[in-house]
Specification:
The protein is α/β, with parallel strands linked by helices and about 350 residues long. The protein has ten helices and twelve strands. The chain has two domains: about 1-10 and about 220-345, Aspartate Aminotransferase, domain 1, CATH 3.90.1150.10; about 15-220, Type I PLP-dependent aspartate aminotransferase-like (Major domain) (Aspartate Aminotransferase, domain 2), CATH 3.40.640.10. It has helices spanning about 15-25, 35-55, 70-75, 95-105, 185-195, 205-220, 220-240, 275-280, 305, 330-345, and strands at about 1-5, 60-65, 85-90, 105, 115-120, 145, 160-165, 175-180, 250-255, 265-270, 285, 320. The longest helix has 21 residues, at about 35-55.
């Protein structure tokens, strides 16, 4: 199998799997119990949280653990200081948009009443890189949320008040929200949501420890992994854009390489539907995507492509290839040959 869908969920590194197996077998207790075993587990997860902060942010941050990245957004947007206020969203993930609609009043543009400005550091469909500093005008008091689910452990992270991390994009379990908490009120609110209101459950100690292990491993190899992703991305840009499609057209990269994460290559396929191409490639045991996995089964054109200004008919033709450190140039060459076969048969 060729797996170019790591932006949806990345394959686990064997070392991460081994670590999880050993950790789950040893630290299986409930950290909220009263006995000494539970206290030891709490100590380990507390130290893991401090290590996690050191890897991705600075000591002014706290950590909220969750089961998935998607689960973080409604918790964040329900903070009392944000509830009922406006939010300016810059091409953000559909799950964050839904949380904003549920808990806040979305605004069309930032103004003095806006309390939260949210943006994707790396947009999950096209891979577009955003300079997060431009989203918050100088002197504006709004808090800044950088959705870094597609960039944590892969690229240096931007400065923000909130950062999101998903282990599933790094081949690990669990997820986390990194948040600044100058007066302790945000942590108190999240504790209330879990212990009194039961809005989310107890985080699994083995999952937490494994996520931190995976992030540490990814950060230690960040430049090496980035160079490999660049090689694969550049190769496929050259090869795929030379393959003729129906009507004498060719695949077109949605963004130039300098404007996108090297881990995501998004293409427009004139005259083809991305969803159909995904299914044809699947028959050849190749996994790719036509867009964000959260909207994989929709019959609507890509919202991301519409937001970027593409006409409705072209917004059906997207194809997303996304890479992990496990991918190779040999797989990229095999994919190009398979895509040529698909293009001829379409």
């Amino acid at each position: 199998m060729i797996y170019f869908d790591a932006a949806a969920a990345a394959p686990p590194d064997p070392a991460v799997l081994d670590f999880y197996r050993e950790t789950a077998a040893r630290w299986y207790g409930n950290q909220e119990s009263s006995h000494a075993f539970a206290r030891t587990i709490r100590q380990k997860t507390d130290e893991a949280a401090r290590q996690f902060v050191r890897l991705l942010a600075d000591d002014s941050f706290e950590v909220l653990w969750a089961d998935s990245g998607t689960a973080l957004f409604p918790l964040l947007t329900s903070l009392p200081e944000l509830r009922g206020q406006s939010c300016f969203c810059d091409l953000v993930h559909p799950a964050l948009q839904a949380a904003v609609r549920l808990n806040m009043r979305p605004a069309a543009a930032p103004d003095p009443a806006v309390r939260l400005i949210a943006g994707s550091h790396v947009e999950s469909e096209t891979g577009r890189l955003t300079d997060m500093t431009r989203l918050r005008p100088e002197g504006m008091p709004a808090l800044l949320l950088a959705d870094t689910i597609q960039s944590a452990g892969k690229l240096p992270l931007p400065a923000a008040d909130f950062l999101t991390v998903s282990g599933h994009k790094l081949g690990a379990p669990s997820a986390a929200l990194l948040y600044r908490d100058p007066d302790g009120k945000r942590r108190a609110f999240f504790d209330q949501q879990r212990h009194r209101d039961y809005r989310f459950g107890r985080p699994d100690p083995a999952a937490i420890l494994t996520l931190v292990f995976a992030v540490e491993r990814a950060c230690s190899r960040m430049e090496e992994n980035r160079r490999q992703a660049v090689r694969i991305n550049d190769f496929l840009r050259r090869e795929l854009t030379a393959i003729p499609l129906r009507g004498g057209k060719y695949p077109v990269p949605t963004l130039p390489p300098e404007a996108a994460s090297p881990y995501i290559l998004h293409l427009l396929l004139p005259g083809m539907q991305g969803g159909v191409v995904v299914r044809m490639l699947s028959e050849l045991d190749i996994c790719v995507a036509s867009g964000s996995v959260c909207q994989a089964e929709t019959d609507q054109p890509s919202p991301a492509l519409l937001t970027l200004g593409y006409p409705r008919n072209e917004a059906y033709s997207g194809l997303r290839l996304s890479f992990s450190p496990a991918n190779t140039l040999e797989e990229a060459a095999a994919f190009a040959a398979a895509f040529r076969q698909i293009a001829a048969a379409y």
